Write a sequence for this structure.
């Protein structure tokens, strides 16, 4: 792996510019970043915010910790919330994974459906190629859709002006949407699910609707050859849609499993630190050592609250991407909400 590839690999952990020079921090946080990197950024923000508030809004921290039950009450609520959160997420993970625990007949039907889908993909090309990885699938489908859209343009060459203009506009929109998938799939880097995001950008539903609109508007003017070519293009879009939805299903399963695993690992230290802090505050055993010039009680409270919030920040980091993917792929049904 070259030095440049190592540089692009840092996109998992740092929002470095993309290969085209663009810099999208929000996109990096929502989609491209490793969830542990987002969690670390949120933890750093919470700790810095608590330290800043405590430094600007000065008050007697010693009195707050020893003479009022507010801190103990908040930490106790967080401790209960951590245990409840872990239970809920593990239950959700069990429901997601139960999809794979089925009978032999169900497994057989699933495998048969996969083989039929791969056979349909192979029939799109003369070589019978049927890729199994997302990058090759996107490149193949982009090439097939591009060729079939260009064939429609050739079929309507010499037709009347209005029909030619509508077909030309339709073909140009299809090619402009599909071409980036072929060019960027090989260079997508810096994100564990980078290829998936490329597929999410293609709004296939719009073109399937436009194909029906073309038939209804110019039905009497369209030749049988053009009608068959339009059917072939719609078929390619349908296969692309099925593949993209299946990749999304795999992503959800993997993401929820990683969420449960990370949450279980983070929750145990968080529970131990929170419980120990409650006992220390109740016994009035508080630190008095200055570290890096930070007030001992302020840094103690900020550290304990940050660690107590760690499970919730892990959930926030994963749910940001899960909700973003769900929102970007919500148009797979017969209706979609335009924003």
């Amino acid at each position: 792996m070259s030095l440049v590839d190592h540089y692009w690999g840092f996109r998992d952990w740092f929002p470095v510019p993309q290969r085209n020079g663009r810099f999208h921090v929000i996109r990096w946080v929502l989609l491209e970043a490793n969830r542990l990197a987002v969690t670390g950024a949120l933890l750093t923000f919470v700790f810095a915010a608590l330290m800043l508030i405590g430094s600007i809004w000065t008050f007697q921290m010693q009195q707050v910790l020893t003479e009022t039950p507010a801190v103990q009450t908040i930490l106790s609520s967080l401790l209960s919330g951590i245990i409840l959160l872990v239970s809920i997420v593990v239950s959700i993970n069990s429901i997601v994974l139960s999809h794979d625990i089925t009978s032999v007949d169900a497994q057989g039907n699933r495998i048969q459906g996969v083989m039929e889908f791969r056979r349909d993909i192979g029939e799109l090309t003369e070589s019978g190629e049927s890729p199994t990885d997302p990058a090759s699938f996107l490149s193949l489908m982009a090439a097939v859709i591009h060729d079939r859209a260009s064939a429609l343009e050739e079929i309507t060459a010499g037709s009347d002006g209005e029909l030619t203009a509508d077909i030309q506009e339709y073909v140009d929109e299809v090619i402009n949407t599909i071409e980036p998938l072929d060019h960027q799939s090989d260079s997508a880097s810096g994100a564990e699910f980078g290829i998936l995001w490329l597929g999410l950008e293609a709004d296939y539903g719009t073109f399937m609707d436009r194909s029906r609109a073309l038939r209804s508007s110019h039905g009497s003017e369209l030749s049988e050859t053009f009608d068959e070519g339009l059917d072939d293009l719609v078929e390619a879009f349908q296969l692309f849609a099925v593949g993209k939805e299946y990749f999304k299903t795999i992503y959800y399963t993997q993401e929820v499993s990683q969420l449960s695993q990370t949450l279980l690992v983070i929750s145990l230290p968080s529970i131990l630190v929170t419980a120990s802090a409650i006992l220390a505050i109740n016994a009035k055993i508080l630190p008095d050592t200055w570290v890096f010039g930070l007030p001992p009680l302020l840094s103690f409270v900020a550290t304990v609250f940050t660690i107590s919030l760690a499970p919730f920040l892990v959930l926030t980091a994963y749910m940001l991407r899960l909700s973003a993917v769900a929102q970007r792929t919500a148009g797979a049904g017969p209706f979609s909400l335009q924003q």
In short: The chain has a mean pLDDT of 78. The CA atoms of residues 74 and 305 lie 9 Å apart. The first helix runs from residue 3 to 9.
